Amino acid sequence: MEKIYNEDLKLISREYDVRTLFNNEFERFIIEERIDPITNFKVRINKSIKSKPRSYGRIYSKKSKCPFCNPEKETPDFEFSKKIFIGDSVLFSNKYPYGKYHAVLVPNYKKHVKSFSQISYLDLYNSFMLIKEFYEKIPEKDYKYIFINLNKGFSAGASQEHLHFQILIEKEPTNYFRIYLDKSNKYFDKYKKFFIEDYFNFEKQLNERIILDGIIKLWSSFAPFRNNELIGYIDTFGIFFLSQNKFEEFIKTLYKILITYEKLYENFNLVIFDTTLLRESRSYPIIKISQRPLFDIGYMEICHLEYVVSSIPEETAKEFKENLERI
Predict the structure, then answer these.
(1) CATH T-level topology, domain 175-324
(2) What is the pLDDT of residues 162-199, one digit of tens each?
(3) Could you tell me which of 76, 285, 179, 156 has the C-alpha nearest to residue 84?
(4) Which top-rank group of organisms is this from (predicted)?
């Protein structure tokens, strides 16, 4: 749908169907994407989200059901594929999708785990192997933006306490990464270098917020959107281009980061934007992690898109680096 007032003022939306297979019946969801005429930000509307169950701190007894502990019976398949299992990890269709190819990934479904300290390195390794198998199975090859997301804890937006990732394979980048990629492309055209790499090297010169300089380059955000926010990149053109040795190093480093962050800040959001499927990408894969205590969003964030935080980035870097070395 497109309603036009003039060439600079348009109301644009589009709808598409998502279908999941649950208990041998297809469930159909209509997702609408609308473009905000002021910011050009994309907004998603899924009317079925109103009925999404949230356990919000409910403690599971032996008799209560966690769908992620019994994925074979309690979770849906994709329209184009059954659930995918590797070891103790499983990936299946999101019952309340935000996009056409939206999966839930449970690193360990055989135990009711609530934290990264309860899973193994192998669970995380198998989880990333599932992501690779997932994008290879997607029938539409123009869906090439891979987003690996995590809501750790109820205050971070999780609807189930059982530890899980949300995997989105998108046709277009999300708002933040659209802005980031646009900046990266313009920067490359001007300097013939990657923006994120120069950003890290600049931070390295200053040596005020640097945390890691290995397969994952990690530092504390200079201007954070959330408390104790970290940003970084993986030193490769795509996670799934890494050699076996480098891939294992990446998983071990990420595992250490997640356990340390959880230990320090408990509830948090994570996104990894992987560039494996992007030809001629002018970026490396990006990682962002930020703390999510209760009630951390107010009118400044919601109405003004300006973020108010209380943590000092330099102190976050110092604290995180000291604790990371102890893991």
Answers:
(1) HIT family, subunit A (3.30.428)
(2) 999 999 999 999 999 999 999 999 999 999 999 999 99
(3) 76
(4) Archaea
